[in-house]
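Before the break, one more example. Copy the sequence into your notebook; we will annotate it together after we see the structure.
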Amino acid sequence: MSETTDKIVMRALAEKFADERAHRIATIAAQELIESEGERIDEADTYRIPSCQVDEHTLDCIQHLCWVGEAVSHETPDGYVMVQLGDFTLGSLA
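Here is what the structure looks like once it is written out:
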């Protein structure tokens, strides 16, 4: 490989590792937000948050966790957002 190709490969790897690190940090921060803002209920790793307290940032965190398969959520008729943390990826179903 040429020096230019080596630099391109190294830069691509550095960007990949940075993206993965940012993803892990965002996931951990989102989980911590749910655990701190939500009220833990009797179901395993399930938290409820009053809908009136779910701001845009909290909603973004919930959506992030659901998108990466780290949570499922739904709204209840009595005005709560329920969030269950766990492994909900396709790999966990196999």
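The mean pLDDT is 92. The longest helix spans residues 3-37. Try to locate both features in your own notes.
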